Amino acid sequence: MSSLSASDMDTQGAARRTDAQAAADNPAVAAPDAPGAEPQAATDSSAVVEAPAADAPAADGSAVSGEGAVSDEGGAAQAATPQPGDEPPADAPVEDAPAPETAPAAAVTKPRIERTYPVDPDAPPAVSVQDLTITYRTTFEKVPTIKSAIVRLGRGERAVREVHALQGLTFDVMEGTALGIIGANGAGKSTLMRALAGVLPPTSGRIEVRGEISSLLSLGVGFNGALSGRENVMLGGLAQGLTRAQVAERAEEIAEFAELGDFMDLPLRTYSAGMAQRLAFAVSVHMEPDILLIDEALSAGDARFKNKAAAKMDELMSSARAMFLVSHSLASIRELCNDAIWIHEGRLMMRGTPQACGDAYTRFLEVGENAFTLEDL
Ligand SMILES: Nc1ncnc2c1ncn2[C@@H]1O[C@H](COP(=O)(O)OP(=O)(O)OP(=O)(O)O)[C@@H](O)[C@H]1O
């Protein structure tokens, strides 16, 4: 396994991404919530992703290096306590997880199927995240002017706003793990997934990945609305690092899985959100990944497709090393995952079973001061 800085990440490692993917990922990476945030050029991924050199350039809205954002105590052993009076330990054993005071809103009513994916206990972790810190840096104005800079200076305001999206995250994921990632809006879930996919270089810390990654980070990443479904299959496959011949081999199977019929020959912009998700999911799962990243990818799918997607994920997990699933649906996390982390404000709050993490998180939201402002669980 090679060790590379983020600035010179190349294709020798796990997740190979092309310029097409990088360009297509830009809007997702740079979907800013702060004015003035600009898209950032995505980079290739590699087996080992480390923070770039301290003087690496940071585009607006991008993750940046330096600036003391690294927590010395970061990692699995660190428990953030963002809300007083309710602090489940970061590495709380599953048995110690607090029981919910009320039933979780997304409780699963049907009996839970235990996910027992093949695990080699002696194998090194499929993914190792070490003291990962990611800080976004955005400017306040889209086009800063000298006048606005002087006004800001006069007021003693900084022209750049930093968002500490991930703060010293440390955890390992062993083979055979389907890891659910739970957390409130803005907790850092998508940032973590982008970092794992190699789209976003760490500000500091390190990610080690053993294997090929296929990522379904958000709807239509790597896709082009003007191209047909079929053309987008080729684009998506190339973006995931396959050759044209390899994509062509799988194209029919992907089309069948997506069940889009004649829509496969129509432009993607004519698809509903659910249809586009079906295509994106079909492409990602047919890349035969060792590690699959799925970020809220199934939210728009209908019930039948969700079932089919779950069955496909099961199948993948019998050969894939690991899967990461971000979802606001605790039911999906409980249903599909055999391990979970809960992150809050960029810090690891808890590692445990999906049930235990979901229960602790639900309880946290119920007593937290933001409980009424959060729409999702
Ligand atoms: N491109 C960006 N530029 C600046 N800040 C960003 C950018 N992307 C995300 N952030 C900030 O980073 C933090 C974490 O965002 P992230 O999207 O990772 O959260 P999340 O847990 O996925 O949230 P949600 O559940 O709402 O999707 C938030 O405070 C967000 O405002």
UniProtKB/TrEMBL annotation:
Residues 11-37, 44-66, 74-84, 95-109 have a biased composition (Low complexity). This is ABC transporter domain-containing protein. Belongs to the ABC transporter superfamily. Residues 1-124 are annotated as: Disordered. It holds the Pfam family ABC_tran. PANTHER family: TEICHOIC ACIDS EXPORT ATP-BINDING PROTEIN TAGH. PROSITE patterns: ABC_TRANSPORTER_1 (PS00211), ABC_TRANSPORTER_2 (PS50893). It comes from Cellulomonas persica.
